[in-house]
Amino acid sequence: MKREELAEYSQRVWGRQARAGALAIVFLILWVPGLVFLRNRLDWAENATRSIVILSAYAAVPVILFLALGVSRFRTMPKCPHCGVRFYPPLLASAITTGKCGHCGESIES
Ligand SMILES: [Zn+2]
């Protein structure tokens, strides 16, 4: 792995993050009216428990979605060839600028 490859990776991830942020905003803009619509449509007087379960399931969708995206992003981060630690953003920046792992101090270029 070379510093240039890490810099390219960092730029790619930055572009992807900007797109993901825009999609998340669109998703939330669509999700909130859906929540209000669902709350108004559910039969709270007749079947309150069922209504709470349906509404909770709908509310859990963005949480699960964002958790899954976070986990998948973490799993694709490059790793140090020596200690195996993932280059999350602060370590990635130091690896690009110094060429050394911020965790073990070894050179990342092998
Ligand atoms: Zn390391």
Overview of this protein structure:
With 110 residues, the chain is mainly alpha-helical. The protein has one domain. The protein is built from 3 helices and no strands. Helix 1 packs antiparallel against helix 2 and helix 1 packs antiparallel against helix 3. The model has no long low-confidence stretch (mean pLDDT 93). The site of zinc ion has 8 residues, from loops.
Question: What is the element layout, followed by pairings?
Answer:
Blueprint lengths: L2 H39 L6 H28 L13 H10 L12
**Percent of sequence in beta strands:** under 5%
> How many domains make up the 3D coordinates?
1
Number of helices: 3
- How far apart the termini lie comes to 6 Å
In brief:
This protein is mainly alpha-helical and 110 residues long. It has helices spanning 3-41, 48-75, 89-98.
Summarize this structure as a short list of keywords or feature phrases.
about 110 residues, mainly alpha, 3 helices, elongated
